[in-house]
Specification:
The protein has 15 helices and eight strands. It is α/β, with parallel strands linked by helices and about 325 residues long. The protein has a four-stranded parallel beta sheet, with helices on both faces. It is globular. The mean pLDDT is about 95.
Length: about 325
């Protein structure tokens, strides 16, 4: 098993026959994610460091993962330090970086270095890409059923898209799970909630956000970052695929995509999730200045259900959206 700290060119690990593991997915689905954070704090991680970083550290040690691809540019500003701490624990780390300027040459070099590390050719990677594109297309259909036909919940949309980062370690088994879900979803009665929401920002550390929203009469029909994990754009080659992927680059290209999808999906309001102690919290002021729909900024720290304060804020936000809608 090869762990990674955020989305990397998955095609390379599939071509190499190495089972992929998105450490974020392992962490948040662990039976005791809070315990993983506490293990990191006992090891010396400060209290005021992002819960995801501490969770990833605890996950690597708990699962005995011996090799980790660490994305040192384009994701978390704390990843380099995490990589160094893991090295101290005897974990082999491989750096990967998304160039901020989206340079095709630089990104192609990063992909080639990663391919060389795992000993795979461009032809092998292209073959793996074709396999993954088939699976991703089916997840795109789940996304379409969410906003176009209203047959998929916000949580199912979130879960299937977020799992495309590592295909649950086994693309063939994941594809079978998707096929079964699609067969059931295509015949469901449509949802009839009164409010349609967009969720933007990193996936939530809050464990019951989506069902809580639906209990309050709102459904998420656009999960921004999770959709990016599924590689939603048709591209000519692998380098272009990871250049179009918006998450690791500047906030403005993300906002172009968000604005387009808000209009297409007829979104009433936006929940902007920010993680405590994350540099991306600063981007909230840009998001608020740019987007023309109501926004609720929601902050999370550690794994767990919605706290009372956040629930009250969400209820107030949804009431405001309902009052704005034409009768």
């Amino acid at each position: 098993m090869v762990g990674f700290t955020t989305t990397i060119p998955l095609e390379i690990l599939i071509a190499a026959g190495r089972p992929p593991a998105d450490l974020n997915n392992l962490f948040i689905t662990d039976p005791d994610p809070q315990g993983l954070i506490e293990e990191a704090e006992i090891a010396g991680f400060p209290r005021n460091i992002c819960g995801w970083i501490k969770g990833l550290y605890g996950t690597v040690l708990r699962h005995g993962i011996g090799e980790v691809i660490a994305v040192t540019e384009g994701d978390c500003s704390n990843t380099q330090a995490l990589m160094e701490v893991l090295c101290l624990q005897g974990v082999k780390t491989i750096p990967f970086a998304y160039p901020y300027d989206r340079s095709r040459e630089t990104l192609a070099l990063e992909i080639r270095k990663l391919s060389d590390h795992f000993g795979v050719s461009a032809a092998q990677v292209a073959e793996a890409r074709a396999q993954l594109e088939r699976v991703r297309a089916k997840v795109h259909e789940i996304d379409r059923l969410t906003w176009d036909e209203n047959r998929v919940s916000g949580e199912d949309n979130h879960l299937f898209q977020v799992c495309t980062s590592d295909m649950k370690g086994d693309p063939a088994a994941f594809e079978r799970e998707i096929d079964e879900f699609l067969r059931a979803a295509q015949t469901r009665a449509p949802f009839s909630e009164s409010l349609r929401l967009a969720y933007i920002g990193v996936p939530p550390i809050i464990t019951n956000l989506y069902p809580s929203l639906e209990e309050m009469g709102a459904r998420v029909v656009f999960n921004e970052t999770q959709r990016q994990f599924s590689m939603p754009y048709a591209t000519a080659d692998l380098v272009e695929q990871y250049r179009r992927y918006t998450y690791p680059y500047d906030v403005f290209s993300r906002l172009d995509d968000i604005e387009e999808q808000i209009a297409l999906r007829r979104v009433d309001g936006v929940i902007h999730y920010v993680q405590s102690f994350c540099f991306r919290q600063i981007e909230d002021l840009i998001v608020r200045k740019r987007l023309k729909v109501p926004i609720l900024t929601l902050e999370g720290d550690r794994p767990g259900p919605l706290d009372a304060r956040s629930r009250i804020r969400i209820e107030g936000f949804l009431e405001m959206l309902k009052a704005r809608k034409p009768c």
